[in-house]
């Protein structure tokens, strides 16, 4: 079993990302990646960047399934603010 911190460190070393958040386990890993590298790219291309980086973990059966969300730093700040605003309204 591979640890989430291993995947997080690997992505931060391989790609110019500002932040990486990993949750879940090797059966289903959720990756949130934040970086300027995604600016101007389609959502599919953004996800392909992350997927291709972790593909070896998938083919070696360290990861069974993965969901990927990517943000530019500006998108991430808006998403966090939106989440904080909606959380406070309950």
Characteristics:
single chain, 90 residues, alpha+beta, GMP Synthetase, Chain A, domain 3, 3-stranded mixed sheet, 3 strands, 22% strand, globular, BolA-like_sf, BolA/IbaG_stress_morph_reg
Give the structure's gist in a few sentences:
This protein is an alpha+beta fold and 90 residues long. Helix content is 49%, strand content 22%.
Question: What can you see in these coordinates?
Answer:
This protein is of the alpha+beta class and 90 residues long. It has one domain (4-88): 2-Layer Sandwich (GMP Synthetase, Chain A, domain 3). It is 49% helix and 22% strand. It is built from three helices and three strands. The chain has a three-stranded mixed β-sheet with strand order 1-2-3. β2, α2 and β3 form a beta-alpha-beta unit. The chain is globular.
